[in-house]
Structures are given as structure tokens and as C-alpha cells.
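Reader question, answered in our methods column.
A reader sent in the components of a multi-part assembly and asked whether the whole thing could be modeled at once rather than chain by chain. We filled in our standard form and ran it. Here is what they sent:
COMPLEX SIZE: three components
ENTRIES:
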Amino acid sequence: MNEKHNILKREFCARNTQIVARELLGCILCRKSGSEIFRGKIVETEAYVQEDAACHAHKGRTKRSSSLFEQPGTAYVYLIYGMYNCLNVVTDRKDYGSGVLLRALEPLSSGLETNGPGKLCRAFEINSEVNKTDLLNPNSDIWIEYGEKIPDGNVVQTARVGIKHNAHYPWRFYIKDNKWVSKR
DNA sequence: GATAAGATGTTA
DNA sequence: AACATCTTATCA
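And here is the structure of the entire assembly that came back:
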């Protein structure tokens, strides 16, 4: 039996970015490291689209943002403040710059105690090598599986974190009362 | 080629 | 509230 049978379908990511950000809550990010597989439930996300000045794809395709224009389900990893990586899932459609930032996970394997996008990537050994890999490919060392469905009553939608432009947009989603959601 | 700013996290 | 730390974008 294939341990990756529950991987997300391409159509899941090929939708409106805010929908994907909402639906990704409860899904499982998986990372293979050697013979071990680490899993974490996604509990906090943020949506970024091309029209949004806070999005790295806002000014069009650049060397850094080019991943955001790949097909839905592609990973976009970038370095922030010279020391932390952040992981995005590309959404919507090819050649349109949009994605969902994964901000926090609930650890389902030990040793993954994290909160916040930077530590998340440190724990999962996500670096520039992961950039532009396909998160929906069963042969990849990192992928996303379907998890539990989060009812609307347990989803909180608020403003995004740590940005200057359009900071009031309520494009951040997290699971209510979940201990692993980042603070700030 | 130089420079400022940044989707963060830790420390005081 | 300061700071660590470096790539990218945006000038010149």
C-alpha cells in the first residue's frame, strides 16, 4: 500500500487563493528526511495574490517570485531577514502569481515543536532546495495530504502578520483555540 | 556596483 | 523595543 495515497489533488490548489488558504487548515504537511517521515497539521495560513502589494509577485515575475507563477501545488521558498525560510503553496493557475504562506503547524511527530513560519521551515529542513519542487508529487521528499475537515465555526479569519502593505486585509486564517498558532 | 528593506524570532 | 543577518529589488 502506498503511504502517500492521501496526497492533495492538483484541483485542490487550482482554486481561488483565499479558498485554498481556508481549506488547507487541517491538512498535513509531510517531510521525508532519510528514513524518517515527519508530519504536521496545518493550523495557520495567509493568502497572497498578484494584485496585492504585499505579495512578492506584485511587480511581476522576478528571479525570486518566479515560483509563484508555476503550476498550482508548487513550493515557493524564500529567505526572510537573512535567517529564516518561509514556505508557500502556489495556488490558482499557472502564470498567475499567487500562493498561500504556511505560518504554523501542529506537530504530529515529535521534535517538531514550532510556531511561526521561520521555525516551521527550520524544523522541516525546508531550504532553497525545496523551492519550486512539486508538493503534490508522490516521489518528492515533501508533500501535503488531506487531513481533518475544520468546520467554519472553528476557523478564525483576521489580518495578516508582519507586512506593511494592505495590512488590514483579512487574509489570515487559523484554527480557533489551537495552541500552535503563532502569536505576534 | 551600492544600498535599503524585509510575509521573523530571540533577547532584554 | 532592539537586533541578528543576507538576499533581493531598486536604484545609479
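What stands out: The beta strands of chain A are 28-33, 36-49, 75-80, 84-90, 98-107, 142-145, 155-158, 172-175. The mean pLDDT of chain A is 93.
Send us your own complexes using the same form.
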